[in-house]
Amino acid sequence: MTETVSIPAIPAPLRWLNEPEAWKVAGSDTLEVRAGGGTDLFTDPDGGARYANAPALLTRLEGDYLLSARVRLDLESTYDAAVLVLHADAQHWAKLCLESSPQGHPTIVSVVTRGVSDDCNSHTVDAEDVQLRIARLGPAFAFHARTGDGPWNLIRYFAPGAEPRVGFLAQSPLGQGRTVRFEAIQHSPQRLPDIRSGE
Q1: Per DSSP, which regions of the chain are E strands?
Q2: What is the DSSP secondary-structure string of 40-95?
Q3: What is the pLDDT of residues 113-131, one digit of tens each?
């Protein structure tokens, strides 16, 4: 990791894990990241390929918190994705993605990796206004997604097994590269009272 990045909405400096082709912070709560072609973070559960070259901007946040962002990208190639990510080390990490499915549909996808990746497609969404959120609850984390002003839908509830940093990732495994925009980034140092309430 090299350059320190400041996003005013995040109360701690961030650093790159794999630098992007380009990036930009706009205002207090917007980040753009350009991932090159052939970039991904995935360890195939069949024991095959391992990919760990997707650009990710990470920080360490203490205590319980909520971290959310509205995500925007042109879903052109299969598995292009805008991602909120937890990353402890090469063996322990997790992704919450707005990702292009093989059928070309914007899809909410979660991946939890403890040595190998556990990959789960949740549901397709309207890609015009999609928000992703990570909630920390002590050693556990909850992934949520919503469209517009609708309820937060629980996507995944898990413990990563190691202390992670948190942040933003862009990927384009099969494409020529993709620019991802994270807007309305929000951090709140609070514990989510009920992960299934929709709030």
Answers
A1: 4-5, 14-17, 22-26, 30-36, 41-43, 50-52, 56-59, 65-72, 81-89, 92-100, 106-114, 116-124, 130-137, 140-147, 153-158, 165-171, 177-188
A2: -EEE-TTS--EEE-S-EEEE---SSEEEEEEEE----STT-EEEEEEEEETTEEEE
A3: 999 999 999 999 987 789 9
The 10 Å Cβ neighbour count of residue 116 is: 15
CB atoms near residue 181 (< 10 Å):
18
Domains, the chain, with CATH or none: 4-187 (2.60.120.200)
Asked if 8 and 52 count as a contact pair (C-beta separation under 8 A), the reply is: no
pLDDT single digits (tens) 141-179: 999 999 999 999 999 999 998 999 999 999 999 999 999
Give the residue among 66, 15, 62, 19 at the shortest CA–CA distance from 39: 19
Threshold 0.85, pTM exceeds: yes
- Residue 51 CA to residue 28 CA, distance in Å, equals 32
Going by DSSP bridges, is the β-strand pair 4-5/177-188 parallel, antiparallel, or unpaired?
unpaired
- Contact by Cβ (8 Å): 55, 172: no
